[in-house]
Structures are given as C-alpha cells and as structure tokens.
Write a structure and sequence with these properties.
The chain has about 500 residues and is an alpha+beta fold. The chain has 3 domains: about 300 residues, FAD/NAD(P)-binding domain, CATH 3.50.50; about 80 residues, Alpha-Beta Plaits, CATH 3.30.70; about 80 residues, Glutaredoxin. It is about 30% helix and about 25% strand. The chain contains 13 helices and 24 strands. The strands form 6 sheets. Strands 1, 2, 7, 8, 9, 10, 18 and 19 form an 8-stranded mixed beta sheet that branches. Strands 13-14-15-12-16 form a 5-stranded antiparallel beta sheet, with helices on one face. Strands 22-21-23-24 form a 4-stranded mixed beta sheet, with helices on one face. Helix 12 links the parallel strand 21 and strand 22. Helix 3 packs across helix 4 and helix 7 runs antiparallel to helix 8.
Length: about 500
Amino acid sequence: MTSSSSSSSSCLHDVVIAGAGPVGLFLACELALAKLDVLVLERAESPEAPLKAPPLGTRGLSIATAEALHRRGLLDELSMATGAPRQPRAGHFAGIAIDAARIDRSGWKYHLPNPASNPFAADMGSVESVLAARAVALGVDIRRGHAVTGIDDHGDEVAVHANGLSFRAKWLVGCDGGRSAVRKLADFEFPGTEPEFTAYSALVDIADPEKLRPGRNATPAGFYMNEPGRLAIADFDGGAFDRSEAITPEHLQAVLRRVSGTDVTLSSVHLATSFTDRARLVTTYRKGRVLLAGDAAHIHSALGGQGLNAGLGDAMNLGWKLAATVRGNAPAGLLDTYHAERHPVGEWLLDWTRAQAAVMRPDAHGRALEGIVRGLADTPGGATWFAEQLWGVSLHYDLGGGHPLVGRSAPDVEFADGSRLAFHLRAGAGVLVDFDGSQPLRQAIADWSDSIRYVAGGATNELGLTALLVRPDGFVAWASDTAAAPGDVEPAATRWFGLQ
C-alpha cells in the first residue's frame, strides 16, 4: 500500500468510504443508522453529470433493490425525485425483451403484493440525490473533490490519503467504481476475462434515418438498437476502444456504419458513452481493514443493468454487519459472512453478463443461441425464470436451517394495525415477528440483544407462519410454521446478533 500526505487529521472516523455514488451513499446511510461516524470521500467536484440524467442515466431497479429502499423508507422519496410514478418493467436478456404478460408469479409464495412488488426505472442522478440527502440528514460527512491517493492499513486502523490530507478510520470501504483506486492501492486480486465487444449508447440525430432498420438488429459485425433519437451499438472489436478517449462523432459514425453495413450519416451526436464486456471479480471482498463493494469489487458489461442492483445489495448486506463490528457487539465471524454471501452473487453476475455476450456474438453459434433463448423467453416458464433472475426474486443466501424461507427476502406482511414489516425494519435493526404473540418469545426478546425489535400480532396474510426472525437487511434468519419457543429461535439469534 502506498501513501503520500503533507498533513493529517487527528479524528478517528469509524468508517471512511471512498466514492459518493449510489453504493457508497447507501452504505453511508446504513452505517449512520447505527450512529457511526462516517466520512465519504468523492473524487468528483460535483455530483452533477450529463450521463446521470435520463435517458442514458436511467437504470432498471430490481425487486430486490426496491425492497431494500422500501425497508429504509426511501422508495417513495425516489419516486418523488424522479417526478414520475414507478412504472413496472420486465427487462431483457441480451436485448431480447421479456414479456411481462407471460410471467407467472403464482409460484412466488413468499412474495406478497406490496409497494416494492415490481422492478422499475430510475435515473442515476435521482438515486444519488435521494441517498445523499438521507446520508447528510443522518450526519454523514461528504467531501467532494477528494481523490484517494494512498492507504496505510496499520492493523487496528487505516490511514487514507486524499488531496494531501490524511484521514484516520477504523475501517475503509472502497465504493469507488470499476477503476477503484482503493482496490488497486490495497492490492486486491482481480482476475477475470477480457472483452469481446465495445458497446456504445448515444443520443443522436440521423440525417438519413431510413437507412437503419428500427428496433434490435443483429448483423455480421455485432448488433444495433435503433430508437428515435437514441442508438445502442455492440461492435465485436475485442473491446479495442479505449474508454478514456472521447467518443467523437466521426468515430461513432464509423462504428455505426461498420456494424449496420450501411453508409448512414449522423448529423449530430449530443451525448455518448461506451463500455465493454470485460468481466472481473476480486477473490476476496476484504483485506485487513479494507473492504470493497459495488463495481470496485466486480466489473462486467452493463447488459441487463444488473451492476447498480448488485452494488446496492452489497451495501445493504455489509452495512449492518460492519456497524455491529465497529460497535463491538458482532458475533464471531459476522463480518466474514459479507464475502461468503455476496461473492457468489458477484460470480453469478459475471456469468449472467458473459452469457448475454455469447448470445450476441455475430457468428453462427451466437445466432443459434439467440434463437434458443428467444424461444425460451417466449414461454411462460422461460419468461418467469428470466424474471426471477433479473428481478432478484431468486436471490438466496445459504444460511442453513430447514425452512424454505431461511436465507430469502422476508415477505412484507401487513399487520392488523396497518403497518408492514418494512416499516419495522426502517431503523436498521433485526425484527422478531411473533404472529401468535406468545409470552415465551416476548420474554426472550427482552433478555436478548437490543439489536432485535419484537413485533407481535396477527397479519392479513401470515402464509402459515407462526414466527420469523428477520435480519436488518430484510433476509430471514429463522422461520417457523409451528408453535415456537425461545429455544427454537435462540441459535439463529445467537449466530446473527449475539445474546447479552
């Protein structure tokens, strides 16, 4: 690790986060809920950027992400920030649209209708503004124009160097994107695969639009998506375009002509961005007192828009575990479960995007795969399976335990008083739900960790359950559909929260 500093700060922060994008800001909010001292260092001077605004800045948010925002009271705030109601969207795989009408939800027994029942679209600027406002309200210190240039992990604390200053922290989390300085400075291993294509997304005017077919079009060189005023292109050039270079109108027109096989002319290019399908994943999400989340830990193509969802999932998973570790009341090994649970998600994410690149290949193999995938996606079973993957419905952590709900997102049951489970998770604590209101469980929770809230009473749809222990991130640690005693839930409570 390297360092270079001309002055120092004597204040010891609980956590320093590098990166004030959605992942860093959401993690800051999670830590601040636990009353930690959180400092966020952001390289950019301003949060404003054209590529964060619609339409190029629009991202699809999964049900898993919607649930996380709902559980922290942020879902409605995001809707107000975007200025539009949440519109459900099914998504796509390699540009092959999933038909929402063919998706069968009847098998999703534990996903009850609630405000977070559907995926939806939101622009990056709105997501960041909502999260930044919440972070500031919770007391987070956000310092922009501070690029991390050095790290010294001393074993019991970390020195973080930025702009000639040093900041002391008990922990450092790199949420600073695909080119993460933290990842490089801390020397994380970052293996993966090299790209096959360069993709472009641009807002343009076309002088002769009749030369391009509308919609998604596969060609011998790749494919292009033609919508009014907007183009998406995948050029199978081996990822040759250097993203650090400016995308000139001349370059974009040359790529479009090569891929489309036409002599189409772009009269103007208003905004353009590019990415490749390079796919890499760190071998560990933690080294000493340094952790990674979001694109700092995993990079991949933007196909299907899963990166933001995975990053916010990292933040939701890490936040309460790191907070408990800082407070000193974490059970043994709790922080290690961050890597254990999220690294497999990163592996799935890379394979998911690699599979889409294979379907898009401009050769006979790619065309054959595309035909098969398109046929599968056009069936109810196929459309449902793709939706389960895209929407995060299939997300499951291996937490042990025999009940099918353990390790899955908790159903957002509505209690007799009109409150939902999500409301009781807003403070960032775990929740023990006792549908029977039994005295033994009530007494047990009084003796256990103050990190668990007790909620008793019937619900409109109890799904045959008698009790649930829900982690702060909304995932079920223990469930019962029979009469429950303290001894039944105690092992799970000990494992995730410890007992006083």
